Amino acid sequence: LYGNPVCGNSSVAPIDSLCQPQSVNQQTSKQQQDSSLICSPCPSDKNYEYNPSSPIPCFCAVPLGVGLRLKSPGITDFNPYEGAFGDSTTSLLKLYVYQLHVEHYIWEVGPRLNMHLKLFPSNTSLFNMSEVVRLRHVLAGWEITLPDIFGPYELLNFTLGSYADGMYSSKLNCAKA
Predict the structure, then answer these.
(1) Which residues contact 173 (CB under 8 A, 6 or more apart)?
(2) 154 has which bridge partners?
(3) pTM above 0.85?
């Protein structure tokens, strides 16, 4: 009841404990790895890593990192909805489901769901710069609306990583034109 006007009434002592802020169940994501696969290491330049969702085993690519917070989800357990979240998010971003990996998530007070996503290129090791710009524009511009069950989101970060140098040079090329 924290924040409810009834909590400001000091004469209602029996509900005092209900008026204190409560931390939300700190359920976090599970890390899944297929231990039966033996993959050779990814190249060490450009932050290559395995796409755990790729239909091609041991496929190395350079992902984009996305920090996202669902501000008022209509769920309290994300596990059964992770597939639906992936389906709707990739559809709205015009990506394939295997291009999205929910790296981890944690419930926060609110309740809000703080997530770190990785977006991988489709069947290639690197995104082209126009795709990086498009994805950043769509996410930062709130051009997608997630289904009501997930509620609105806020973009916490869009991590370019190895793509940062390309973004800088593509901006310079645009400025020269």
Answers:
(1) none
(2) 69
(3) no
